[in-house]
Design goal:
Blueprint: H1 2-24, H2 46-50, H3 53-66, E1 84-87, H4 97-100, E2 106-114, E3 117-125, H5 139-146, E4 152-160, H6 167-174, E5 185-189, E6 195-204, E7 207-219, E8 221-225, E9 241-242, H7 243-251, E10 253-254, E11 268-272, H8 283-312
Parallel strand pairs: 1-5, 8-11
Antiparallel strand pairs: 1-2, 2-3, 3-4, 5-6, 6-7, 7-9, 8-10
Signal peptide: 1-22
Keywords: Membrane, Signal, Transmembrane, Transmembrane helix
Protein name: DUF4825 domain-containing protein
Protein backbone atom coordinates (compact mmCIF):
# COMPACT_ATOMS: atom_id res chain seq x y z
CA UNK A 1 0.00 0.00 0.00
CA UNK A 2 2.84 2.36 0.86
CA UNK A 3 4.45 1.66 -2.52
CA UNK A 4 1.19 2.48 -4.31
CA UNK A 5 0.84 5.75 -2.39
CA UNK A 6 4.48 6.56 -3.14
CA UNK A 7 3.92 5.99 -6.87
CA UNK A 8 0.80 8.15 -6.82
CA UNK A 9 2.72 10.94 -5.06
CA UNK A 10 5.48 10.78 -7.68
CA UNK A 11 2.92 10.91 -10.48
CA UNK A 12 1.23 13.95 -8.92
CA UNK A 13 4.58 15.66 -8.47
CA UNK A 14 5.53 14.96 -12.09
CA UNK A 15 2.16 16.27 -13.28
CA UNK A 16 2.59 19.47 -11.28
CA UNK A 17 6.08 19.99 -12.75
CA UNK A 18 4.82 19.47 -16.30
CA UNK A 19 1.94 21.85 -15.64
CA UNK A 20 4.32 24.49 -14.35
CA UNK A 21 6.58 24.11 -17.38
CA UNK A 22 3.69 24.28 -19.80
CA UNK A 23 2.44 27.49 -18.19
CA UNK A 24 5.75 29.12 -19.17
CA UNK A 25 4.91 28.68 -22.86
CA UNK A 26 1.28 29.69 -22.80
CA UNK A 27 0.43 32.17 -25.53
CA UNK A 28 -2.29 34.77 -25.36
CA UNK A 29 -5.03 35.11 -27.91
CA UNK A 30 -4.65 37.91 -30.41
CA UNK A 31 -6.40 41.13 -29.34
CA UNK A 32 -7.99 43.27 -32.05
CA UNK A 33 -8.97 46.94 -32.01
CA UNK A 34 -12.12 48.45 -33.48
CA UNK A 35 -10.52 48.70 -36.95
CA UNK A 36 -9.57 45.03 -37.13
CA UNK A 37 -5.85 45.49 -36.38
CA UNK A 38 -3.77 44.33 -33.44
CA UNK A 39 -3.12 47.27 -31.15
CA UNK A 40 0.26 48.09 -29.60
CA UNK A 41 -1.53 50.04 -26.85
CA UNK A 42 -3.20 46.79 -25.76
CA UNK A 43 -0.07 44.65 -26.07
CA UNK A 44 1.81 43.49 -22.96
CA UNK A 45 5.08 44.85 -24.39
CA UNK A 46 3.73 48.38 -24.91
CA UNK A 47 5.49 49.92 -21.90
CA UNK A 48 8.82 48.38 -22.93
CA UNK A 49 8.53 49.71 -26.48
CA UNK A 50 7.33 53.09 -25.26
CA UNK A 51 10.62 53.38 -23.34
CA UNK A 52 12.42 53.16 -26.70
CA UNK A 53 11.23 56.66 -27.68
CA UNK A 54 14.76 58.02 -27.48
CA UNK A 55 16.11 55.25 -29.69
CA UNK A 56 13.24 55.74 -32.17
CA UNK A 57 14.10 59.45 -32.45
CA UNK A 58 17.79 58.63 -32.82
CA UNK A 59 17.07 56.21 -35.70
CA UNK A 60 14.87 58.82 -37.37
CA UNK A 61 17.42 61.62 -37.03
CA UNK A 62 20.11 59.38 -38.51
CA UNK A 63 18.06 59.04 -41.69
CA UNK A 64 17.38 62.79 -41.72
CA UNK A 65 21.11 63.58 -41.53
CA UNK A 66 22.21 60.95 -44.06
CA UNK A 67 19.52 62.03 -46.54
CA UNK A 68 20.04 65.79 -45.98
CA UNK A 69 16.36 66.28 -45.15
CA UNK A 70 15.08 69.56 -43.76
CA UNK A 71 12.95 67.87 -41.09
CA UNK A 72 12.84 68.15 -37.30
CA UNK A 73 11.37 65.38 -35.13
CA UNK A 74 10.52 65.39 -31.44
CA UNK A 75 8.83 62.95 -29.06
CA UNK A 76 5.36 64.20 -30.03
CA UNK A 77 6.00 63.05 -33.63
CA UNK A 78 6.00 59.42 -32.47
CA UNK A 79 2.54 57.81 -32.85
CA UNK A 80 2.35 54.54 -30.94
CA UNK A 81 -1.40 54.42 -31.54
CA UNK A 82 -0.79 53.99 -35.28
CA UNK A 83 1.85 51.25 -34.86
CA UNK A 84 1.26 48.06 -36.81
CA UNK A 85 2.52 44.55 -36.16
CA UNK A 86 4.21 42.48 -38.89
CA UNK A 87 4.88 38.75 -38.58
CA UNK A 88 8.04 37.04 -39.87
CA UNK A 89 6.48 33.74 -40.89
CA UNK A 90 5.06 32.20 -44.07
CA UNK A 91 1.25 32.13 -43.51
CA UNK A 92 0.82 29.41 -46.14
CA UNK A 93 2.60 26.99 -43.79
CA UNK A 94 0.07 27.57 -41.00
CA UNK A 95 -3.15 25.60 -40.72
CA UNK A 96 -4.90 27.98 -38.30
CA UNK A 97 -3.56 31.53 -38.52
CA UNK A 98 -5.14 33.05 -35.42
CA UNK A 99 -4.31 29.98 -33.35
CA UNK A 100 -0.66 29.69 -34.43
CA UNK A 101 0.40 33.32 -34.95
CA UNK A 102 0.96 33.95 -31.20
CA UNK A 103 3.97 31.63 -31.56
CA UNK A 104 5.45 33.54 -34.51
CA UNK A 105 8.23 36.13 -34.51
CA UNK A 106 7.05 39.66 -35.14
CA UNK A 107 8.02 43.32 -35.15
CA UNK A 108 6.17 46.45 -34.06
CA UNK A 109 6.53 49.20 -36.65
CA UNK A 110 6.27 52.70 -35.19
CA UNK A 111 5.25 55.68 -37.39
CA UNK A 112 7.01 59.00 -36.85
CA UNK A 113 4.84 61.59 -38.61
CA UNK A 114 5.97 64.98 -39.95
CA UNK A 115 4.67 67.60 -42.36
CA UNK A 116 7.17 66.34 -44.95
CA UNK A 117 6.40 62.63 -44.94
CA UNK A 118 6.69 59.89 -42.37
CA UNK A 119 9.28 57.49 -40.97
CA UNK A 120 8.76 53.90 -39.88
CA UNK A 121 10.99 52.52 -37.13
CA UNK A 122 10.80 48.77 -36.46
CA UNK A 123 11.17 47.31 -32.98
CA UNK A 124 12.15 43.67 -32.52
CA UNK A 125 13.60 41.39 -29.89
CA UNK A 126 17.37 41.69 -29.68
CA UNK A 127 18.07 37.99 -30.16
CA UNK A 128 17.40 35.45 -32.91
CA UNK A 129 15.32 32.62 -31.44
CA UNK A 130 14.89 29.01 -32.54
CA UNK A 131 11.90 28.06 -34.69
CA UNK A 132 10.33 24.81 -35.85
CA UNK A 133 9.65 23.58 -39.41
CA UNK A 134 6.67 25.94 -39.69
CA UNK A 135 8.78 28.92 -38.70
CA UNK A 136 7.08 29.19 -35.31
CA UNK A 137 8.96 29.72 -32.05
CA UNK A 138 9.83 26.58 -30.14
CA UNK A 139 8.80 26.06 -26.50
CA UNK A 140 12.32 26.87 -25.36
CA UNK A 141 12.24 30.15 -27.29
CA UNK A 142 8.89 31.07 -25.75
CA UNK A 143 10.31 30.38 -22.28
CA UNK A 144 13.21 32.73 -23.03
CA UNK A 145 10.69 35.47 -23.83
CA UNK A 146 8.51 34.64 -20.81
CA UNK A 147 11.54 34.78 -18.52
CA UNK A 148 12.48 38.18 -19.98
CA UNK A 149 15.89 36.97 -21.15
CA UNK A 150 15.52 39.11 -24.27
CA UNK A 151 14.69 42.78 -24.68
CA UNK A 152 13.09 45.01 -27.29
CA UNK A 153 15.25 47.23 -29.47
CA UNK A 154 14.97 49.36 -32.62
CA UNK A 155 16.26 47.54 -35.68
CA UNK A 156 15.28 49.12 -39.01
CA UNK A 157 14.00 52.52 -40.12
CA UNK A 158 12.59 53.88 -43.40
CA UNK A 159 11.52 57.26 -44.78
CA UNK A 160 8.49 57.78 -47.01
CA UNK A 161 7.82 61.19 -48.68
CA UNK A 162 4.60 63.19 -48.40
CA UNK A 163 2.58 61.27 -50.98
CA UNK A 164 3.07 57.94 -49.19
CA UNK A 165 0.32 56.45 -47.05
CA UNK A 166 0.71 54.33 -43.95
CA UNK A 167 0.32 50.57 -44.55
CA UNK A 168 -2.97 50.55 -42.66
CA UNK A 169 -4.30 53.27 -44.98
CA UNK A 170 -3.18 51.36 -48.08
CA UNK A 171 -4.91 48.22 -46.83
CA UNK A 172 -8.14 50.00 -45.89
CA UNK A 173 -8.25 51.67 -49.33
CA UNK A 174 -7.88 48.26 -50.99
CA UNK A 175 -10.83 46.91 -49.01
CA UNK A 176 -13.30 49.62 -50.06
CA UNK A 177 -16.54 48.14 -51.47
CA UNK A 178 -15.84 44.66 -50.12
CA UNK A 179 -19.12 44.65 -48.15
CA UNK A 180 -18.09 42.29 -45.36
CA UNK A 181 -21.06 41.01 -43.38
CA UNK A 182 -19.01 41.09 -40.17
CA UNK A 183 -15.84 42.63 -38.81
CA UNK A 184 -12.62 41.29 -40.29
CA UNK A 185 -9.11 40.88 -38.92
CA UNK A 186 -6.16 42.41 -40.79
CA UNK A 187 -2.66 40.96 -40.42
CA UNK A 188 0.65 42.17 -41.86
CA UNK A 189 3.56 39.95 -42.86
CA UNK A 190 7.18 40.83 -43.62
CA UNK A 191 10.22 39.19 -45.23
CA UNK A 192 10.14 35.42 -44.88
CA UNK A 193 11.13 32.51 -47.15
CA UNK A 194 9.91 33.15 -50.70
CA UNK A 195 8.19 36.48 -50.03
CA UNK A 196 9.78 39.89 -49.65
CA UNK A 197 8.43 43.29 -48.69
CA UNK A 198 5.26 43.99 -46.73
CA UNK A 199 1.90 42.34 -47.47
CA UNK A 200 -1.29 41.61 -45.60
CA UNK A 201 -3.98 38.99 -45.23
CA UNK A 202 -7.59 39.76 -44.39
CA UNK A 203 -9.47 37.19 -42.31
CA UNK A 204 -13.22 36.83 -42.00
CA UNK A 205 -14.56 34.37 -39.44
CA UNK A 206 -10.89 33.39 -38.81
CA UNK A 207 -10.42 32.30 -42.44
CA UNK A 208 -8.21 34.22 -44.94
CA UNK A 209 -10.22 35.73 -47.79
CA UNK A 210 -7.97 38.43 -49.29
CA UNK A 211 -4.29 39.22 -49.78
CA UNK A 212 -3.06 42.78 -50.39
CA UNK A 213 0.58 43.61 -51.27
CA UNK A 214 1.48 46.78 -49.35
CA UNK A 215 5.03 47.98 -50.01
CA UNK A 216 7.71 46.54 -52.33
CA UNK A 217 6.15 43.07 -52.37
CA UNK A 218 8.07 40.54 -54.45
CA UNK A 219 8.65 36.80 -54.66
CA UNK A 220 11.97 34.97 -54.81
CA UNK A 221 12.36 31.50 -56.28
CA UNK A 222 11.69 29.49 -59.42
CA UNK A 223 8.23 29.05 -60.90
CA UNK A 224 6.90 27.05 -63.83
CA UNK A 225 3.80 28.37 -65.50
CA UNK A 226 1.96 27.59 -68.71
CA UNK A 227 -1.07 28.78 -70.62
CA UNK A 228 -3.07 31.45 -68.81
CA UNK A 229 -1.45 30.85 -65.39
CA UNK A 230 -0.73 34.06 -63.47
CA UNK A 231 2.85 34.65 -62.36
CA UNK A 232 3.80 35.24 -58.74
CA UNK A 233 5.79 38.19 -60.05
CA UNK A 234 2.69 40.07 -61.21
CA UNK A 235 1.30 41.18 -57.84
CA UNK A 236 0.82 44.96 -57.64
CA UNK A 237 1.12 46.89 -54.39
CA UNK A 238 -2.20 48.22 -53.14
CA UNK A 239 -4.33 45.82 -55.22
CA UNK A 240 -6.69 43.28 -53.66
CA UNK A 241 -6.39 39.57 -54.54
CA UNK A 242 -8.32 36.55 -53.36
CA UNK A 243 -6.46 34.38 -50.90
CA UNK A 244 -6.96 31.39 -53.21
CA UNK A 245 -5.25 33.21 -56.10
CA UNK A 246 -2.40 34.29 -53.82
CA UNK A 247 -1.88 30.78 -52.43
CA UNK A 248 -1.93 29.12 -55.86
CA UNK A 249 0.69 31.48 -57.28
CA UNK A 250 3.04 31.31 -54.29
CA UNK A 251 2.77 27.53 -53.88
CA UNK A 252 3.95 27.09 -57.49
CA UNK A 253 7.22 28.83 -56.62
CA UNK A 254 10.09 26.65 -55.44
CA UNK A 255 12.69 28.28 -53.23
CA UNK A 256 16.22 28.80 -54.51
CA UNK A 257 18.68 26.16 -53.32
CA UNK A 258 20.57 28.76 -51.29
CA UNK A 259 17.97 30.76 -49.34
CA UNK A 260 18.92 33.71 -47.16
CA UNK A 261 16.26 34.59 -44.54
CA UNK A 262 16.35 38.35 -45.10
CA UNK A 263 17.01 38.82 -48.80
CA UNK A 264 19.83 38.39 -51.29
CA UNK A 265 18.29 35.88 -53.71
CA UNK A 266 18.30 36.54 -57.46
CA UNK A 267 14.56 37.20 -57.42
CA UNK A 268 11.87 35.29 -59.31
CA UNK A 269 12.86 33.09 -62.24
CA UNK A 270 9.96 32.07 -64.48
CA UNK A 271 10.33 28.93 -66.61
CA UNK A 272 7.33 28.26 -68.91
CA UNK A 273 6.42 24.58 -68.88
CA UNK A 274 6.65 22.59 -72.11
CA UNK A 275 3.60 21.70 -74.19
CA UNK A 276 2.23 18.25 -73.30
CA UNK A 277 3.51 16.61 -76.50
CA UNK A 278 7.08 17.61 -75.50
CA UNK A 279 6.89 16.38 -71.91
CA UNK A 280 9.39 13.60 -71.20
CA UNK A 281 11.62 14.50 -74.17
CA UNK A 282 15.20 15.48 -73.34
CA UNK A 283 16.54 18.86 -74.54
CA UNK A 284 18.76 17.21 -77.19
CA UNK A 285 15.71 15.38 -78.51
CA UNK A 286 13.83 18.67 -78.85
CA UNK A 287 16.77 20.17 -80.79
CA UNK A 288 16.73 17.16 -83.14
CA UNK A 289 12.97 17.59 -83.69
CA UNK A 290 13.52 21.24 -84.57
CA UNK A 291 16.25 20.34 -87.09
CA UNK A 292 14.06 17.67 -88.71
CA UNK A 293 11.08 20.05 -88.85
CA UNK A 294 13.24 22.76 -90.42
CA UNK A 295 14.59 20.28 -92.99
CA UNK A 296 11.10 19.10 -93.94
CA UNK A 297 9.79 22.66 -94.28
CA UNK A 298 12.77 23.70 -96.41
CA UNK A 299 12.54 20.61 -98.64
CA UNK A 300 8.78 21.04 -99.03
CA UNK A 301 9.20 24.66 -99.93
CA UNK A 302 11.79 23.85 -102.60
CA UNK A 303 9.54 21.17 -104.14
CA UNK A 304 6.54 23.50 -104.23
CA UNK A 305 8.64 26.24 -105.80
CA UNK A 306 9.97 23.81 -108.44
CA UNK A 307 6.44 22.65 -109.39
CA UNK A 308 5.21 26.21 -109.75
CA UNK A 309 8.23 27.07 -111.86
CA UNK A 310 7.64 24.05 -114.16
CA UNK A 311 3.99 25.04 -114.69
CA UNK A 312 4.98 28.57 -115.64
CA UNK A 313 7.24 27.14 -118.34
Amino acid sequence: MKKILSCLSCMLLLFSILTACSSDVETRELVWNENGYESLLQAEEFEKIQKLSGSILSETRTIIRSSNLDITVEKENIHFKLAYKSYMVNPLKLEDLEQELPRAEYAWNIPVLTDNGHFIVSCRLNRKLNTNSKGLLTDSSLRIIANQEVRWQTSLSYYYPNASKLPTEILDDALINTNFDQRVHKIFFGDCNKMRGLYSLVLQDKKPVYMVPIKDFSVSGIEKISGDMKSAGDFIDGQRYTYKDFAERINRVKEHKHVFPYGGEPGLITNPTRPKFLEGIKPEGIVLLIIVAAFLLTTGGILVYQKVKDRVR
